[in-house]
Amino acid sequence: DAGITQSPRHKVTETGTPVTLRCHQTENHRYMYWYRQDPGHGLRLIHYSYGVKDTDKGEVSDGYSVSRSKTEDFLLTLESATSSQTSVYFCAIGAGTVYNEQFFGPGTRLTVL
Amino acid sequence: AQKITQTQPGMFVQEKEAVTLDCTYDTSDPSYGLFWYKQPSSGEMIFLIYQGSYDQQNATEGRYSLNFQKARKSANLVISASQLGDSAMYFCAMREGNTDKLIFGTGTRLQVFP
Q: How far are the Cα atoms of A30, A74, A91, A92 from residue A26, in angstroms, in the given order?
């Protein structure tokens, strides 16, 4: 158990509304990541963070923003949700080992109507 | 350009048999890492095995082994003695150089039957 929680686990919202997903870790790891998973695409990186207030864009960052004000929390915000953002969102942490494998949270299923 | 390719959308294997899940990759960086993850129907992502580009030997973790063929740019996952609980989606992923970003393939759904 890598000590990663995501909230909420499920959310249904309407187009145009703002949505914030939270990732919380208890392991004090430096690196955190947000991915989305869609059929036929595997997992794609949205944004990542390498420390408090240090974030960078991933492959599919348009329409998303992130914030990390504390080591343990990494927030993903959809400023104005669209139906194309309906997906399963995973948070991950970098293990900090020589492999720096990533451990994933349980995921958040977001539906935008 | 897609950098991780998993050409098998689905695979079937009988319990207790071995199965190979294919993964090919593309990179010009001499330093990279290759990962396999398992995603059961419950949805969580489980790290299985890692292979570094400079590792001389194929990685093994219990019933999982990675058949690493550098010249072919392939990193196939071999599961020996399949169990019903191995039924899941399997994802291959790559990390290039000193980055910590992973690029994932589209996955292979493995179904183990009795």
A: 11, 12, 13, 12
Q: What is the pLDDT of residue B96?
A: 82
Chain B CA closest to residue A99:
B50
Q: How far is B102 from chain A (nearest CA, A)?
A: 8
| Cβ contact B106–A90 (<8 Å) | no
Phi and psi at residue B85, in whole multiples of 5°? -70, -5
* CB proximity B64 to A under 8 Å: no
Instruction: Report the residue from A35, A43, A94 with minimal CB separation from B100.
Output: A94
Percentage of chain A with pLDDT > 70? 98
Work out the average pLDDT over A50-68: 94
Supply the pLDDT for residue A1. Answer: 55
pLDDT digits (tens, 9 = 90+) for B38-64: 999 999 999 999 999 999 899 999 999
As beta bridge partners, residue A65 has: A77
A44 neighbors A62 (Cβ within 8 angstroms): no
Q: Is B45 on the interface with A (CB under 8 A)?
A: yes
Query: Judging by beta carbons within 10 Å of its beta carbon (0-12, 13-18, 19+), is residue A66 exposed, middle or buried?
Result: buried
| Chain pair A-B, CB pairs under 8 angstroms | 52
Write out the two tokens for A42.
């595997």
